[in-house]
Amino acid sequence: MSEDAGAGDVEVLFFRVGADRLGADASQVLRIERPGVPGARRSPLGSHSPRRALVFRSGEGEAEGALEVDLVLGVRAIPTRELRRVPAAARAAHHAIGFWLDGDRPVLLIDLPRTLAPHPHDIPDSQRKAT
Amino acid sequence: MEPTPLQRALQGAPERAPPVKGRPEQELFLFRLGELRLGVPSENVREVIRAGPLTPLPRTPAFILGVCGHRGEVLPVLDLLRFLGKGESRISSRTRLFVGIAGTFVTGVVTDAVVGLQRVPVQDILPPPMGGDVSTEHFLGVVTRGQEVTSLLNFVKVLQTARQRAVGR
User: Fold this and answer.
1) pLDDT confidence of A131, banded at 50, 70, 90?
2) Nearest to A93 among B58, B76, B167 (CB)
3) In this complex, do A88 and B68 lie within 8 Å of one another by their Cβ atoms?
4) How far is residue A20's CA from residue A33's CA, in Å, rounded to a whole number?
């Protein structure tokens, strides 16, 4: 499923939530399942009409978390020189950790465990009632 | 021997041109945004670029429209109309961004049209109108040329406030 990651590369799993293309460290993803993973804590930042769930270690012992997504695009080895931090002038949500520059198009990279306990401001208004 | 008129004139001539009392000038980058004609000191402007596709950033203030990539750099894109509470910009194929810089902060700023560079005597820059709205603190002053009024942004202050609002959320 992935390209071989060389020295100086990091494997990123890309996926879509709504219209947004996002990426996460592939090493955080334990497996990909259908939505509604039993026993996993569901991230409030997932898709409204998910087709897949990224299952990851929640950071609390063996507990698992799940981010439900619309589409899994695949895993790619990304050279670290193509990674960028979030600009200081644009502090974003806690789970937004940086970008991969796909040409001139920044792709947002997120930390999956952080999506489980987002700051109240980080939850889109449209999703607050559902959580 | 009597000095010639030329020699007499030269005797009183200075060795170099006397300093001209210059009028200090400020070079401004001027642009239009909505109904506003705005200016920022040109030292705060690095370049003007086409607005490409923006990547939205979750839960940033509404005046941060997203980020764009430019020359290997990720730039937050700032909508001054939203920031100043004067409406909101619309991004189209004609939209241009100027890459603004203040200290270590670099950002893309939406413009509807770039007017260009203009040198303005500092004494022609009048203080911003008092008693205005809260956005007044983000202006250095106004310049009036004929019927046109240009409001000069304190770009350093704008970026400082933008960052404080983003972090303070």
Assistant:
1) very low
2) B58
3) no
4) 20
Q: Which residue has the higher pLDDT, B15 or A72?
A: A72
Nearest to B38 by CA among B24, B28, B48, B51: B28
Q: Which residues of A touch B70 (CB under 8 A)?
A: 104
8 A C-beta contact, residue A15 and residue A54: yes
* The pair of three-digit structure tokens given for residue B145, joined into one six-digit string: 């040329």
Phi-psi region of B71 (alpha: psi -120 to 50; beta: other; left: phi over 0): left
pTM, 2 dp: 0.78
Does A77 lie at the interface with B, CB-CB under 8 angstroms?
no
**A90 vs B57: CB contact, 8 Å cut-off?**
yes
Taking the Cβ of residue A120 and every Cβ of chain B, the question of whether any pair is shorter than 8 Å is answered with no
Q: Which two tokens stand for residue A88?
A: 């200081």
User: Torsions phi, psi of A20, nearest 5?
Assistant: -90, 135
Secondary structure (3-state) at B53: coil
What is the edge-to-edge ordering of all strands in the sheet holding B148-153?
Answer: B113-121, B25-33, B36-41, B148-153, B139-145
Specify whether the CB–CB gap between A65 and A43 falls below 8 A: yes
Question: ipTM score of the complex?
Answer: 0.71
Residue B166 CA to chain centroid, in angstroms?
22
Q: Which residues, including other chains, have CB under 8 Å from residue B117's CB and lie 6 or more apart?
A: B27, B28, B29, B30, B42
Distance from CA of A85 to the nearest CA of B (A): 8
